[in-house]
Every structure is written in structure tokens, then in C-alpha cells.
Design brief:
The structure holds 2 protein chains of 2 kinds. By secondary structure, chain A is mainly alpha-helical. Chain A has a domain of 247 residues: MetI-like (MetI-like fold). Chain A contains 25 helices and no strands. The longest helix of chain A has 35 residues. Chain A is globular. Chain B has a domain of 183 residues: Rossmann fold. Classes of the chains: A mainly alpha, B alpha/beta. The interface between A and B is large, with 38 and 51 residues.
């Protein structure tokens, strides 16, 4: 509704006094504030960039329609899925899971000291803080598939390079979130423990770490989910896991077999998400901000685990009997729950190492080789492949822009349909949620591999795959944001007799917009990271040059590509962070 | 004056503190506290009470001046000396300073960290003797039934009593309390002050306690020191003090008046009450 429309009925009412009408009209012309102008500029620039990017990667509507046809043809050849070597698929599926567990374990072990060094309140020295933050930023900017491709060259094909890649890349997220959690702890318990004469590290372990623990657990579970998705594609570069089988099936044109593998991946990821939601709900039950919204899956899961969780809450209030001589804490309730989970976790890690026949010594032994390869990348060689690097990174940025835009176009209406409080009816809601679950259960890179098989090499199939993945991921975030909005303004708008669509336009969308824009920028960040690796599977962009340079062991060129990726990814991250801060 | 008299537990001389980008939090404060005295610091929030208290165990370092506590020069003390001093000085905070996720017992046990080396995770990493001692201290503050309860499920008054039990693990000779009951309802506040007073008398502790509530201070302390804008504006024994004089500390007064009041104070520097 424009201001002019709004002013009309008021004008009629006050028609006898033209002077006041004038002032009313001028009052209704809102002065455009700086923030609004900024938001508009951002939108205009974003759309201009998308138009440029669309042309740059030769995307076209006719090509898009043809692409959809190609994908449909391929799907026709894929269906029904075949599971002729299901045993193999399941074995590799478990290997994928164990890789994710080991990779996350490595990351947690490495992240913990780094986070303590990076957090303002625990760092021993500003220089240490700068170094730790540098490590976090660096490891986050280099995608795990790139790490994996490099380490495969360094220590050979197998699970080992895969888990090290997962471990090193995950430091970026785990380290950052751990450090944030440490910085957010209440400082008064620490002051109290310091004043009894505790040393700095005693104070940190007694007062800071326990406070940050729930956040640590939440982060680890979240990262385990992400690492399972990653580890299912690492096989594409020979770094172990089920991705290898998928690649082999696609190469030999056994598309129905390939879909069988994808089905196994999907089941694995979905089951994992269910379990981590359930564990989160039981372990962090009281803390809503950490558990997240209680999804149907989470609540179903916590029912499964309820034997443990109810005992936990019951112990909190009653006074227990205990031996006054030994003063040992009674093994019930929360303590028992923690012990059971702790032991289970330990067993899980041991099983993981055994199943992929990896011993920790071997793991440590690989790090010198990894380090050697990293040092051989320096000094980076920008001159030999200067033009391809520039073209490649531009193509990657363009692909990310287009994919984010297309993803947003699909995901915003989809997200509204999947929000319980807005969906037209229960059927639409369930259907949308099911679709989201389905899309999110398949890693983007697997979708990219399938699209490339259907459409052919180049940035277009890569971009489409990215857009497809984005729509699922973004739609879930949009749906969650919409479900969180305050219902009071909605009632008010209904109360004046608005229709459903009017109500969504005037009360739901404006309330959800900051979250949507913020998530959009986040999606752009993530898409840029992913688009730099699309080239590895033939999806265009800078990944292709990286992979070629690796094949011929031109490590200094690899170094140059890595630095380019880092600079661009980090610059976009800073830019989107700045925009987010400005508009929220 | 630089020498510490043997019977003075605390000797502060010309102490000034300026925080970066902040006002002068303490302005040439001098204070002597003899052994066994119950002293109450009063004043508006921001008058420098908490800052003064935190200087006494080295949580804050001064801009100028000297601080001697229990024969330790707090300003010059190294990390090891400071730890040794802090072991002797109990501190009770307004915000309790408990780790909410840990049990009451574990929070109490953390009071013994100054006597131990290395970090501790969990109750069982503390020696059995310390666990028994912690249990006794919880009994002493009347929380023998809440030993293994998570601290954040306790009421405010109970939490502060856990904090007192934690301080007792230090077997302190000097107790500093920073607004120990300011975030409690009157009933819990009275209960906490009773527990504190009983322990102070039984263990013959020297106490410096900042308080908001003037009546509480008058009924409890032997000597009252008032701070305003970082300066000592009142220092008297409770015997020859009426409510009116104390309330003056909370009132804005003219600079000239402040000087005369200060002169009045220098006439009787440390009013000893035994």
C-alpha cells in the first residue's frame, strides 16, 4: 500500500479543511531514513549483481527449462533405485559415519585449546589470541573437500586424509562457537573462585568450562550432523566413505544403482539428524535457546530417551541419602545420565577408530606429511595460472550469487508453507516439511554430481544444484523464523477484518524480514564456499583449476588458489557480516 | 606509617584508583582495621565501596597508594604471594558467584582450590578429607540436605549460604563481603546475615562488609565507614552514631561541608571497638 492510498479516506473525512489535508499529506510522505536507504541500496546492488552473474555463467530460461527436462530424463533412468550391492553401500555408509565421528573428535580436541586461546577472557596473551583467531578464520575459509583433495595427494587415498580434512576444516566452526561460548560466560563465579586463591587455570576449569559446557555439546552435535553430510561426498576425491561408490556408479552409467546409494546416504543423514535432535533435547532439556525449537522429531526422540531425562529432573529437588563418610555423589539422575552418555561417546569413538582400522598413532603420524604438503605450497605462485584463477574465482562468485537468488525465490514461499502458524492447512504443512526433509537429507555436492551427469559439465548444472540445496536449507530457516514471530500483531490484523493474504503481507512478512535477509546473507556465504569446490566434480569455478594443479602436483599454484579463495570468501563474509549488523 | 602494626589486619594508605576512561573511583583513601573488628562500609552505588574491597585481595590493582593485608603488601605481591593471601581472605559476593550447573557440594569444594594444585573436574577429584570438610561447612550454613542439588535450583538465600560455606573452606581470618544480601528478599537477607554473624563470632573473624541497608549496618557492625565519590566521609564507632549522621553519607552535600566533615573524621582515625 502506498502512502497516497492510505491517505485517501482521511482526506475525505477532512475535506472541509484543505489546509490540514495538505499538512497530512506531507506528513504521510515519510522521509527516507539512512537505514532504509541502505537496505534499498543493498537490494538494488544484489539484484544488479545477480543479473550480471546470470549472464556471466550463461544461464538462460530456455537452458533452465532444458536442464529441468534433462534432470527428469535422468531421474527416469534412475527410478526405481537398485540395491544390487547393498551390503557394500551399507558398509561404506557406516564408514562414512565413523569418518564423521573421528573427524569431529579430531576437531574438538584441536579446537578446545584454540578456543581457550581465542576467547578474550581466557587467552594468555593478545598475540596468542590473534594467532588462534587466525587459525579459526583460515580453517573455516577452506572447504573440507579441498583439504581432502590436498591430503589425498599428501598421504594417499583412504579414510585418513578424509578425517584429517574434516577435523581441520571443522576447527573453523567449532573453535569459533566454543570461543563465543567461553566469552559469554558469567564472570562472577570466576571472580569468586579466583578470590579463594585458585590459579588462573583452576578458575577456568572450575568456573568457565562448566558454564560453557551445554553450548559445547550443542555445537559438537550440530557439527557432527554437518560432518556426516561432508563425509558422504569426500569419496569423490578418494578420501574414503560412500561418495566413492556413488562416483563409480555414475561413471559406469549405472544410474539406478547410484540412486540406491543416494537413498542410503539419505537414510543415514536423516537418522543421524533425528538422533542428534533427541540427544540435544535430553541433555540440554532446560535450555531452550540451545535445544532450538522443539521439532516433532526432537520431541519424539526425547520420549525415546525419557527414562534418562526424567530421572535427571527428579534428582534436582529431592534430598538424597549418601554416605556421610565418603561424601561421594549418589549415582543417580543427572550424574548417571552424564556418565551413560560419556561412556557411550567413548565407546562410539573407539568403535569408529576400530571400524575404519585407524589407530591414533597413525593419525598423529600423518600430520608431518600434511604439514610438509602445506609448506610446499609456499611461496604461492600467482603468475603461471593468473588468468584462469581470476576467471575461476569470478565464475564461482557468479554461481553463488545466482544460486542464492534462485534459492531465495523458491525458499521464501516454500518456507511460508512449511511454517506451522502460516501454512494453508495441515496437509500443505506436512507436504512442505516432508519436501524440506528430503532436500536437506541429500548433500548439495551429491545433487551437483547428479545434475552434472544429467546436463553435462559447466557452471550451470553446478549452480542449479546449489540453488536446489539452498532452497531446502533456506526454506527451513525461513519457516523457523516465521514460526518464531509474535502472534499478537497477527490477531490485531485479523481483527480488523483482513483476509489471510493481507494478514500475511502486513504482519507476518514484515516481522520475519530481518531474519530472512540475515539468513539470505548467510546462505550467500555458504554458497560461495560450496561453489569453490563445484569445479572438483566438473561444476565450474575455481575448484577446477585447483584440482588440475593438484593432479600435476603444482603445489605452489594450489597455494595461490587457496589464498585467492580465502581472500574472496573472507571478504564476502566480512561484507555480509557488516550488512547484517547494519540492517538488524 | 608505612609499617604495618601487628594488630592491624588491614592497612590502606592514600589509596587512589582511576579506571581507564572512568572517573576517580577511589580518592586517597586510608583505612586501618584492627583484628576482630566488624566494619561496615556504606555509601551510594558507585561510591567506591566494591572497588575498595576488591583492592584488599588484589582483584584490582591500585593507581597509587599502598595496601597491606595480613602482613602482605598486596600491591607488590607476585602471583604466588597473592594466591597465598587470597587463601586467607574470604570473599562473599552480591551475585553469589556460584557455578549454577554444579552441585552445592562442588561449589563449596571449589573454595579449597587455593590449597590444591592443578585443575579439578568433578567432586571425586577432590580428596575425601576435603569432601568431608565441605559437607561440614554445608551443615554449618544449614544446607546439609541440599548437598548434591544443582546450585541453580536453590533459592537466592540458599545460594548465598552455599557461597558462605565455600568461603569457610578457606578457613579465612579476614572476611570481605560485598553487598551480601542486596539481591535477596528481606526474610532471606535476615537469615543469611544471621548465619554470617554467627560464623564471624564463632570463628573470631575480622569482617569488612559493604551494605546498602543502613539499619542492617547499624545493628550489625561495630564501626561504620562511609564513602562518597571515592572519599572517606564518615568513620565512627557505632556506639556514638545515630541514624541521621549515617544518612548524611547518602545525601548530596556542598564541597565545603565535605571538607569540614572530613576534618572531623581525621580527629579520630580508627575508632577501636573491642
Amino acid at each position: 500500500m502506498s502512502p497516497a492510498e492510505l491517505s485517501q479516506p482521511i482526506e475525505q473525512g477532512k475535506s472541509e479543511t484543505p489546509s490540514s489535508t495538505r499538512s497530512l499529506e506531507s506528513r504521510l510522505k515519510r522521509k527516507t531514513s539512512g537505514d532504509r536507504l541502505f537496505l534499498r541500496c543493498v537490494i538494488v546492488i544484489f539484484i544488479a549483481a545477480v543479473v550480471w552473474a546470470w549472464r556471466h555463467i550463461d544461464m538462460s530460461f530456455s537452458g533452465l527449462i532444458a536442464g529441468v527436462g534433462d534432470v527428469r530424463n535422468l531421474l527416469g533412468r534412475m527410478l526405481p533405485p537398485r540395491f544390487s550391492d547393498l551390503d557394500d553401500a551399507i558398509r561404506l555408509g557406516f564408514e562414512t559415519l565413523w569418518m564423521a565421528v573421528i573427524g569431529t573428535t579430531i576437531a574438538v580436541v584441536l579446537s578446545f585449546p584454540i578456543a581457550l586461546g581465542a576467547a578474550r577472557n581466557t587467552t594468555p596473551h593478545p598475540v596468542v589470541m590473534a594467532v588462534c583467531r587466525g587459525i579459526i578464520v583460515l580453517s573455516r575459509a577452506v572447504p573440507d573437500l579441498i583439504f581432502a583433495a590436498i591430503f589425498v595427494r599428501a598421504i594417499g587415498i583412504g579414510v585418513l586424509p578424509g578425517v584429517i580434512a574434516l577435523g581441520l576444516h571443522s576447527i573453523g566452526m567449532i573453535g569459533k562457537l566454543f570461543a563465543d561460548a567461553i566469552e559469554q560466560t558469567d564472570k562472577s563465579p570466576r571472580e569468586a573462585v579466583t578470590s579463594v586463591g585458585a590459579s588462573k587455570w583452576q578458575a577456568i576449569t572450575t568456573s568457565v568450562i562448566p558454564q560453557a559446557m551445554p553450548s559445547f555439546i550443542s555445537t559438537i552435535l550440530y557439527r557432527l550432523d554437518i560432518n556426516l553430510r561432508s563425509s558422504s561426498v569426500l569419496g569423490i576425491v578418494g578420501a574414503g566413505g560412500i561418495g566413492f561408490l556413488l562416483q563409480a556408479n555414475l561413471r559406469s552409467l549405472q544410474y539406478d544403482e547410484a540412486l540406491g546409494v543416494v537413498t542410503v546416504v539419505f537414510v543415514l543423514i536423516t537418522v543421524m539428524e533425528f538422533f542428534s535432535a533427541a540427544i540435544r533435547a535430553t541433555l540440554l532439556g532446560g535450555d531452550r535457546t540451545l535445544v532450538g525449537r522443539s521439532t516433532p522429531r526432537a520431541s519424539l526422540g526425547s520420549k525415546l530417551f525419557s527414562r534418562l531425562s526424567t530421572r535427571g529432573s527428579e534428582s534436582a529437588t529431592s534430598s538424597q541419602r549418601f554416605n556421610r563418610d565418603t561424601v561421594r555423589p549418589p549415582w543417580i539422575g543427572e550424574l548417571r545420565m552424564k556418565t551413560i552418555y560419556g561412556v557411550a561417546l567413548f565407546i562410539l569413538i573407539v568403535v569408529a577408530f576400530r571400524s575404519v582400522s585407524l589407530n591414533p598413532g597413525e593419525l598423529l603420524g600423518a600430520f608431518p606429511d600434511v604439514w610438509k604438503v602445506i609448506t610446499r605450497m609456499f611461496p604461492p605462485d600467482f603468475t603461471t595460472a593468473r588468468q584462469p584463477i581470476i576467471d575461476g574465482i569470478i565464475e564461482s562468485v557468479a554461481a553463488a550469487l545466482v544460486a542464492t537468488f534462485m534459492g531465495a525465490l523458491i525458499s521464501i514461499p516454500l518456507g511460508l508453507m512449511a511454517a506451522r502458524n502460516v501454512a494453508f492447512n495441515k496437509f500443505v504443512y506436512l507436504l512442505s516439511r516432508l519436501f524440506l526433509l528430503f532436500v536437506r537429507g541429500i548433500p548439495e555436492l551429491i545433487i551437483a554430481v547428479i545434475f552434472i551427469a544429467a546436463i553435462g559439465l559447466g557452471p550451470v548444472p553446478g549452480t542449479l544444484a546449489l540453488a536446489f540445496g539452498t532452497s531446502g536449507f533456506l526454506a527451513k530457516l525461513v519457516a523457523d523464523a516465521v514460526e518464531e514471530i509474535n502472534p499478537t500483531p497477527r490477531e490485531a490484523v485479523f481483527a480488523v477484518g483482513a483476509t489471510r493474504n493481507q494478514e500475511i503481507a502486513t504482519s507476518v512478512v514484515p516481522q520475519a524480514i530481518p531474519a530472512i535477509v540475515s539468513n539470505l546473507l548467510y546462505a550467500l556465504d555458504i554458497n560461495l564456499r560450496t561453489s569453490t569446490i563445484l569445479g572438483i566434480v566438473g561444476g565450474g569455478g575455481i575448484g577446477f583449476i585447483l584440482f588440475n594443479a593438484l593432479r600435476v602436483l603444482k603445489l605452489q599454484t594450489v597455494g595461490a588458489v587457496l589464498i585467492t579463495i580465502f581472500v574472496v570468501v573472507y571478504a564476502i563474509e566480512l561484507l555480509s557480516g557488516w550488512i547484517r549488523k547494519k540492517i538488524l | 606509617m608505612a609499617m604495618t602494626l601487628p594488630d592491624n589486619v588491614v592497612q590502606v594508605t592514600e589509596l587512589s584508583k582511576k579506571f581507564p576512561n572512568g572517573p576517580l573511583a577511589l580518592d586517597r583513601v586510608s583505612l586501618e582495621v584492627p583484628k576482630g573488628q566488624l566494619l561496615s562500609l556504606i555509601g551510594l552505588s558507585g561510591s567506591g565501596k566494591s572497588t575498595l574491597l576488591r583492592h584488599l585481595n588484589g582483584l584490582i590493582q591500585p593507581t597509587s597508594g599502598t595496601v597491606n593485608v595480613l602482613d602482605t603488601n598486596v600491591v607488590a605481591a607476585g602471583r604466588r604471594e597473592l594466591r597465598a593471601l587470597r587463601r586467607e581472605v574470604g570473599f562473599v559476593f552480591q551475585a553469589f558467584g556460584l557455578v549454577g550447573r554444579l552441585t552445592a557440594l562442588e561449589n563449596v569444594l571449589s573454595g579449597s582450590l587455593g590449597r590444591l594444585n592443578g585443575p579439578r573436574f568433578g567432586t571425586l577429584m577432590y580428596p575425601k578429607t576435603l569432601r568431608r570438610e565441605a559437607l561440614e561447612n554445608l551443615d554449618r550454613v544449614g544446607l546439609g540436605d541440599q548437598v548434591f542439588q544443582r546450585s541453580d535450583t536453590l533459592s537466592g538465600g540458599q545460594q548465598q549460604r552455599v557461597a558462605i560455606a565455600r568461603t569457610l573452606m578457606q578457613r579465612p581470618s579476614l572476611l570481605l563481603a560485598d553487598e551480601p544480601v542486596a539481591s535477596l528478599d528481606p526474610e532471606s537477607a535476615a537469615q543469611v546475615m544471621d548465619v554470617l554473624f554467627r560464623i564471624v563470632v564463632e570463628d573470631q573473624l575480622t569482617v569488612i562488609c559493604t551494605l546498602h541497608q543502613v539499619e542492617l549496618a547499624l545493628g550489625w557492625a561495630q564501626r561504620i565507614v562511609g564513602l562518597r565519590d571515592g572519599q572517606v566521609v564518615l568513620d565512627r564507632a557505632v556506639d556514638n552514631l545515630d541514624q541521621e549522621a549515617v544518612m548524611d553519607v547518602y545525601r548530596r552535600v556542598e564541597p565545603g561541608q565535605k571538607v569540614s566533615e572530613g576534618q572531623d573524621l581525621t580527629g579520630s582515625p580508627s575508632t577501636r571497638v573491642s
